[in-house]
Input
Amino acid sequence: MAVSQSVFGERHSLSLSRRIMTGLKLDAPLLAGLVMICGFGLVVLWSASGQDSGLLMRQLVRLGLAFAVMVALAQVPPKVLRLWSPWLFTAGLALLVVVMFVGDFGKGAQRWLDLGIVRFQPSEIMKLAVPMMAAWYLHDRPLPPRFLELLVLLSLVALPAFLIVQQPDLGTALLVASAGLLVVLLGGLRLRLIVLLGAVGASLAPVLWHFMHDYQRLRVLTFFNPESDPLGAGYHIIQSKIAIGSGGLFGKGWGNGSQAQLEFLPERSTDFIFAVLGEEFGLIGLALLMGSYLFLIGRGLYIALQAQDTYTRLLAGSISLTFFVYVFVNTGMVTGLLPVVGVPLPLISYGGTSMVTLMAGFGILMAINGHRNLLAR
Amino acid sequence: MSMTQLKDHWQEQRMFLGRLLAAAVIIILLAGLLVYRLVDLQVVHFEHFSRLSQGNRVRLEPVPPVRGLLFDRNGQMLADNLPVYQLELVPEQVKDIEGTLAELVALGLVQTDDLPRIRAQIRSQRRFEPTVLRHRLGHEEAARFAVHRPRFPGIDIQARLARQYPLGGSASHVIGYVGAVSEGDLQRLDVANYAGTAQTGRIGAERAWEHLLHGSTGHRQVLVNAQGRKLQELDRHDAVPGRNVYLTIDLALQAAAEEALQGRRGSVVALDPRNGHVLALVSMPGYDPNLFSRGISTAQYRALQNDIDQPLFNRALRGQYPPGSTIKPILALAGLHYGVVHGADTIFCRGWFSLPNHSHRYRDWKKTGHGTVNLKESVAQSCDVYYYRLAVSLGIERMQHFLGLFGLGHPTGIDIPGEQPGLVPSREWKRGAFRQPQDQAWFPGETVITGIGQGYMLATPLQLAQAAAILGNRGQGFRPTLLAGLENPTTGEREDFVPEPLPPLNLSPRHVEEAVDSMVAVMHGPRGTARASARGSQWTIAGKTGTAQVIGIAQGEEYDEDKVDERHRPHALFISFAPAENPRIAVGVLVENGASGSGVAAPIARIVMDHWLSRGTD
Output
């Protein structure tokens, strides 16, 4: 009797939690991966911030907010998202123009908009609005897109990216552009055109160079030869390589990374937190994190594959792949594979707006997954 | 339609699957590349990076340079460096920072007012870097701390050099002061070179020659343990001390001028007309620059700022006053230069002047008039009517140009910062200065009153002295300078600053002598307005008095000194140079609300000139 009751109770609670999950359109594998990465992130941040409890609290509040945004977005049917897409894109574009004129200057770059209560970066909206817009544009057109449609798509991506580069925020512009371009690629861009675009892109590099700010050029130059400026711009890369390398296989232990704790490593709680992780938790810690990331991405791609219309398919694919771009640009930068562009390590770096945008992206993925059955019926 | 769409849909899904697979392959390749890189860093080159990370126990620390000293022209000390005790807190060594601060406040070693600044600094600095709690501890306070030291781990007393101004309030507006390096300063200063510097020049000579006084920062390598504590000094590159700066000021002359002006608000500027050296530059009241170098409290600063006498205001450079009659000799010279008048021409002064077809009477300061006056007497007696007429004949544009030749209406270019340009009005200026079209027109009456240095016209005491110097040196001016020379404190090598001549004015020497003679008549003539101030002088003095109204007096109203509030009395002005034939000093004096140029300002100039000339040729 007692046994059967306990079995019954267990079964009941299991089905209850499952009912909550499906009722809230939450995807258990994605949620598990996110909780694991964010939890690990808080552990690392505690050490990277020099045991700053105030900073940790602020990050917790942000995480809470970001999860709330994710849950809220998961309730929105993808059809509604699709209808919103052009409006969200237009609004984001307008805000980008506004920020050019009245934006606040933070750290020398004009990218913040002060709304009195909160300050936020309109460029963050574009990380989602651009792929949404591109997917909306393609959703009722036969794929692969024709050449003229392609030109429209490219300008839809290039315009916001150009505005964001002006702020100047090369890192965000890169992510916005790749989110949009990934939609185009998934939309069936022909191989010939990919090669052609690659060639055009490469030939545009000198033009881009011309428009870059001095500090951005310096970063590219020091990327190719970090030792040329050991106390200036190359310092970041040198110190972060030392941090990761000296971590070895098992790391120096939590809170024991001399590179991070003695502050040889710059931006240790923000852009370079991956190096702190590598120093204190070693290759094992990094592999665990990379595995978790790949798990999230794999789940996202699976959701994209299961999606039932063009819009959700393209959007889910782009969000998942952009997340990888995010991870790779940051880890590539910290390990010295890529130049230093200001891109935080997703879900782990200290900082506000990008966390909310990322979680919003996962909320959309969950919405696409969770509303699928309803649509099928 | 539905048939083709269905077909498209199916094809599309297949293509999408292909693309996703391609993306997955790329992701795996890139992730593999990253893992390869990590293995390379963390396994293959682990030894190498581990060694480098050990090497990072060596930290580079800045060694601040010793700030250069300030001297007057004779080597008298104006600014010195004094060892002081500084109370510091190292955040990582203090368990309970708030509690410790509260205890220090209770002991009277830290001021409650400073707590917000200290907290902000602790937050913004690295945890092993010391935060300054107090810049200067008195001996008694240092002793009090020493008694309680065991209770305060992580709090320490550090000796350092602080700026000290041995003169106190004397010459404060010349010397200026240093203050704590702020965020704003780091925008304009070389951050690396100021890494260890606590104070930087804020104003006056300290600011003007900051780049010479500061020197360059050295650095030392120290071994730190894993907690960041210093264990051992490994290498040291000494700082290069700043240069000693010699000013052109003569401290004794400066003190004499300050004493002569004591108890009044005003300014005295003495220049050497032969090279532009500023011999004395007084602005009264002054302030004690030590307040600033010690770290002035908000209350003290507010008290200085709200003082009705404005001790922080450098009147010599920044005070702009109507020059009044002091510009008459220059306008007389303008009349001669442009051929508008001749020295012997006379006019009859009946005590007022009217423009043709106008009823408005421009009154002479002497109600009964000066009678028949020529150019020399017009200056000696300061006849206003003569200059009303002269102004009309010259016209405002020529007046503006000519006064500009004597340094009026534009900065003199003195080498300490903050100078105001003064103002010499013109038609063009008025068009730009007013918004309403009816205010933009230039009226003939405005030309008339510019003739006696009233109306819109403004000049600084420095400009008055400069005008006297240029005239005294017969048209050859120099850019006023306070920099006499520099000295390398290590080698003792001295380098003198070469004065910068202004372009010479091509004036007829005969005209210039006539103008100088008219100024001599002010001092030594039988009816000269300042003859009382020249009595018994060993030297021929050339001078000109001025009295500038602060408030307008209505038509027909009498000016009664007793009735007027002290702050509404006219300013007293005086310009002079001596010896008149070959001047070695030119002086400009302004006494705010001094009421009388001849009675108040001229005697001050006499004291200053006597003090300087009685020392013989230098």
About this structure: The radius of gyration of chain B is 34 Å.
